[in-house]
Amino acid sequence: MGKSVKMQSLEFKNEGFLSNSHLGLHWNLQDCNFYPAGGLFASVSQMGNNENGGFKLPCADLLVKYVSLPEGFKILGMTEEEKGLVNKKKSGLRLKIKISNPSLRRLISGGIAGAVSRTAVAPLETIRTHLMVGSSGHSSTEVFHNIMKTEGWKGLFRGNFVNVIRVAPSKAIELFVYDTVNKNLSPKLGEQSRLPVPPSLVAGACAGVSSTLVTYPLELVKTRLTIQRDVYNGLLDAFVKILQEGGVGELYRGLTPSLIGVIPYAAANYCAYDTLRKVYRKIFKQERIGNIETLLIGSAAGAISSTATFPLEVARKHMQVGAVSGRQVYNNVLHALASILEQEGIQGLYKGLGPSCLKLVPAAGISFMCYEACKRILVEKEEDA
């Protein structure tokens, strides 16, 4: 039978001392020194006294190496090297990379955020695309089983390489434009905003339009690769065949509904994110927001924006697929929305909303979290490292 060890708790005294009568130990909170009070430490001469009547702990180097010290704890007679070890242990490992150009820091942070977030939710993106066009089933479970049966796990990540190639620069441009525009439009301290709407709303819309114009052809190719998996042999083959079939204009099929959809989505997403961050700071009175809090705030912003603009996303996917497998070709976004509403009802405009939110909500949270974390890693000066 092993022996049990009972730890005695410390008690606060009105004089600013921590005390334990069983051990005979007093800790003065004002000068952070230990004072013996008889009992266990009655013979303090063995440990060494200081001028205040406290004592020096033996084997300070071992204490620094193996014991986590409480905040404000001070060891008497500690060398400067030992103090450095304590500070290093408290601060932990911090990775810092010096990049003096602020624009480059934003672009790199945005690219990493986009690649990480989209890869994490690639299977949900595949299921969502199949649900929207009804190519492999009418429910998330049915689509998942069909993909696993015919292609296995690789089928869930089909088109992800193209997705990362598209999303990384897209998110880099998007977050760069948002940060830049929002910073320039936001009023300085003590000034009133001259815009009738929040600056983050305008910045978000500009960010969404900029990234869409640059990277839209890659999005269309990725959609075609996902749906027409037996037609194309890869990214380059898809580009060549699409150009041969319809010219450059075919690469931008569905661009109008994309732009119409991305403006309210990006505006709502960034505005909600900025607003929720301000609310968090106001409630908790903290200027710095941690990674977990950023993840939750970004996820909430993604849920709000994706739900509000989902019908436009459905219309865009239908227009991108075009006349594949004898499908109807739509003239414009209004024609697509009206046709889907007439044929499938209101539920047709929200087909795939569940997996869409399952994909977009965590993707938005992960993206914002990675972006803010990367901005803290990439610093301007060596002194910030």
From TrEMBL:
What keywords are annotated for this sequence in UniProt? Membrane, Repeat, Transmembrane, Transport
Any one GO BP annotation for this protein: transmembrane transport
Instruction: Respond yes or no to whether keyword Nucleotide-binding is given for this record.
Output: no
Q: Does the keyword Transport apply?
A: yes
Q: What is its main location?
A: membrane
Spell out the GO cellular component terms annotated for this protein, sorted alphabetically and separated by semicolons. membrane
Show the Pfam families listed in the entry: Mito_carr
Query: Sorted alphabetically, which InterPro entries does this protein's record hold?
Result: MCP (IPR002067), MCP_dom_sf (IPR023395), MCP_transmembrane (IPR018108)
Family, according to the entry, reads as follows: Belongs to the mitochondrial carrier (TC 2.A.29) family.
Its recorded name reads Adenine nucleotide transporter BT1, chloroplastic/mitochondrial-like
Biological source species: Sesamum indicum (Oriental sesame)
